[in-house]
What does this fold into?
Amino acid sequence: MIGGTTWNGTRFFDVPSSSPPFALAAPGFPLRSLAALAARAALGGPREVLLAAMQAARMVEGAAGQHPLPESLRRARANSARSWLAALALPSASRLTIARAIEASASAERDALAQAWEGVVTLVTPGADLAARAELRRVTLMLAPQT
It folds into this structure.
């Protein structure tokens, strides 16, 4: 088999490469560039700040994304994320900024969530590449007022 085709000795036959109609689409990870930025960051503080920011972005998506989670589930996720955040070696200002976003994701207050998320964006943007900034912007647009 060569690149989606097979050889029968005299000619190539095309092999269909599409998925069967009943197959599920492969799930995509929406924060690839932010994860790649964290992977390239130095061990310790910078990497942990980026990982915590990525967790906050996932919490924001759960609260304000296309399919928002129920408030009880958001509260449970925020409690677990707070415990995880306490285990990281973060500068205190970064910890406070990210903790605000995680806490705001548990409530239904969209304005408070947007304000807390802007603090995370401000924290991460100086060291972010263009692709990571685009992902941060996409999360920010989720928090835009609904019309």
About this structure: Residues 114 and 140 are 7 Å apart (CA to CA). Helices lie at 32-40, 45-64, 71-86, 92-105, 110-124, 130-142. The chain has a mean pLDDT of 88. Strands lie at 5-7, 12-14.
